[in-house]
Amino acid sequence: xxxxxxxxxxxxxxxxxxxxxxxxxxxxxxxxxxxxxxxxxxxxxxxxxxxxxxxxxxxxxx
Length: 62
Hints:
single chain
């Protein structure tokens, strides 16, 4: 599966972050880099957020 914005091949982490930030029921996804552009955040901030979600026990990031 590829990013709907830049066509990069997606990882499980890309899809999980998209589901957390946009819609858990999504069937099309953006990669982390495109989501960062969309939300105006850095990729470093995105990875900090992902760690925070993991610490909270979010099942998308197991």
